[in-house]
Design goal:
With 118 residues, the protein is an alpha+beta fold. It has helices at 3-38, 52-63, 77-84, 106-113; strands at 43-47, 69-72, 93-96, 99-102. α2 links the parallel β1 (43-47) and β2 (69-72). The longest helix is centred in the N-terminal third of the chain and has 36 residues, at 3-38.
């Protein structure tokens, strides 16, 4: 790995560590809400094309008629940086109305999103 690659890796690791620290200090929901607002969506999902849990969550949200923004971290470097701010592990990562949900968790999505249904 060249100097530029090593520097980029070090920067990504630093951002991930800082993000995890912020998340651990309880700022994760405030950060989630800011990303919901930035993406103009009450539901934002960080995913990867190969992830079966991401597909299940995508299918679940679609079946319930829930609009959402999906960000593929392997295709979108900005999405990967946002994801890193939440500790950089566990997909899908769903930000629902300012709350952080890791993995395919329909019961949590129901709890948070139920008020969105007419």
């Amino acid at each position: 790995m060249g100097k530029k690659g090593a520097a980029a890796l070090a920067l990504v690791m630093l951002v991930a560590l800082m993000g995890f620290s912020v998340y651990q200090l309880g700022a994760g929901n405030r950060l989630a809400l800011s990303f919901n607002e930035a993406h103009e969506s009450e539901v934002v999902m960080y995913s990867a094309a190969w992830c079966p849990a991401c597909a299940a969550t995508r299918d679940y949200l679609t079946a319930r008629g829930q609009s959402f923004v999906e960000l593929d971290m392997e295709k979108n470097p900005a999405a990967a940086q946002e994801f890193a701010q939440f500790g950089g592990h566990g997909i899908p990562l769903v930000l629902a109305k300012g709350e952080v949900i890791r993995g395919h968790r329909p019961s949590e999505l129901n709890r948070i999103l139920a008020p969105l249904q007419p």
